[in-house]
Amino acid sequence: MYYENEKTEYKLRFSDDVLKEVVAFANTSGGAVYIGVDNEGNKVGAGDYDEEYLKITNAIRDSILPDVTAFVKYEACENGVIAVHVAEGSNKPYYIRSKGLRPGGVYVRHGASSVPASHEAIRTMIKESDGDSFEEMRSTDQELTFEFATEAFKRYGTELGPEKFRTLGITKDGMFTNLGLLLSDSCRHTTKVAVFADEERTVFRDSREFGGSILRQFEDAAAYLALCNRTGSVISGLTRTDTRDYPEEAVREALLNALVHRNYSFSGSIIINITETKAEFISLGGLVPGLTKEDVVMGISQPRNKNLAEVFHRLRLIESYGTGIRRVFKLYEGFPVQPSIEVSAGAFKMVLPNMNTEPPADNAPTREVTGQMKKVLSYLDEYGTISDSEVESLLDVKRTRAYLLMREMSEMGLICCEGRGKDKKYQYQAG
User: Fold this and answer.
1) Is residue 247 reached through a cis peptide bond, with omega within 30 degrees of 0 on the bond before it?
2) pTM here?
3) What is the predicted pLDDT for the residue at 363?
């Protein structure tokens, strides 16, 4: 009597279960499926050899992706048994075409059983086979459509078809890559835009979230940002000068930079915050290793997503690498407040100043003393100190509003804070 193990599987007859075993062996360390052997290891035969052989070879060729046939050999054994020998594949993960590149279609060998691979195991196999470049890895979603991208390519004067898929890197070895996922209608990443009524970004005026193809997100977000980009007018004598809050080309370049250069291996959204004084464009991923903030301002560029950048370049949405940020700074030439860049290990932020906001004069108060602030100052004149809870009671406001008000007064230099926690008190500070 023979027993199944991590390298051996018995099947009485050919069925779809054989495909599962072939996938599992190819994804692990190889093995053999013996067709025509019962669960006890008795060789009873697979039936008509020619018919079964044709059925098995056709099914393995047509039903498993990527093509696994180079790692499969067939052997006619005694008593009419057909052996399917499977070597470990070099293009993992292999999966059953009808089930997709997900746990229900990807199997691995675990002892004497073939079990669904976890999402993490699938991602690990893809990374090991395809390398570290996110956009070049195979997409875990292979049921992609490109309706918006196809129309967008036409509007920009070119065509998008199967041959372009291969040359642009949307497909690789006949399978969709993550670049394909980003350009497809099924893109999982989004762009969020929020317009705030205050500089502390606590009061929303409006917010939108844009999804779908990265090309759709670019067009939809750009259209919305154009609506938010108000026009200010200055009249001098008989001349009227109209100025947008932000140079339109600067907004476009900042948006393109966030979309093209973000790290899409993170699942978060691109964030765009707009207040009365500035617009912030925040993307995930920080800088490519080796680059500094100063390098970026100088125009040195090392695209994180080279293929995505090339798509935008072919569509003439970007000119050449590294010119966009320099162009933004050029558009603000001579303006008292310049754009700024902030970089952390996990994020990149570009800030555009509002050109219709009057820059504060040196040593001048930057914010008005409100009625609530005057109440707090009068209280301090009389009692010397005030706590957070006393602010809430005095102004009949909730904790969050009290905290934000006291922080703003501290930043304005009107008060100072002493102590922490329950012992925290604010003191009046004249001047």
Assistant:
1) no
2) 0.65
3) 47
The predicted pLDDT at position 234 comes to 57
pLDDT score at 191: 96
Instruction: Report how far residue 235's alpha carbon sits from residue 233's, in angstroms, rounded to the nearest whole number.
Output: 7
CA atoms within 13 A on the CB side of 180: 27
Q: Which residues of 174-192 are buried (b: 16+ CB within 10 A; e: fewer)?
A: eebbbbbbbbbebbebbbb
Angle in degrees, CA 223, 227, 230, rounded to 5: 140
Written in H, E and C, the secondary structure of the chain is CCCCECCEEEECCCCHHHHHHHHHHHHCCCEEEEECECCCCCECCCCCHHHHHHHHHHHHHHHEECCCHHHEEEEECHHHCEEEEECCCCCCCCEECCCCCCCCCCEEEECCEEEECCHHHHHHHHHHHHCCCHHHCECCCCCCCCHHHHHHHHHCCCCCCHHHHHHHCCEECCEEEHHHHHHCCCCCCCEEEEEECCCCCCCEEEEEEECCCHHHHHHHHHHHHHHHCCEEEEEECCEEEEEECCCHHHHHHHHHHHHHHCCCCCCCCEEEEECCCEEEEEEECCCCCCCCHHHHHHCCCCCCCHHHHHHHHHCCCCCCCCHHHHHHHHHCCCCCCCCEEEECCCEEEEEEECCCCCCCCCCCCCCCCCHHHHHHHHHHHHHCEECHHHHHHHHCCCHHHHHHHHHHHHHCCCEEEECCHHHCEEEECCC
Give me the pLDDT at residue 322, please: 59
Using one digit for the tens of pLDDT, what is the confidence trace for 373-401?
888 888 888 888 899 889 899 998 888 88
Which regions in the chain score pLDDT beneath 50?
363-365, 430-431
pLDDT of residue 188: 92
Task: Walk me through the domains of the chain, giving residue ranges and CATH numbers.
Answer: 8-130 (3.30.950.30), 191-353 (3.30.565.60), 371-428 (1.10.10.10)
AA identity, residue 405:
L
- Per-residue confidence (pLDDT) for residue 229, from 0 to 100: 92
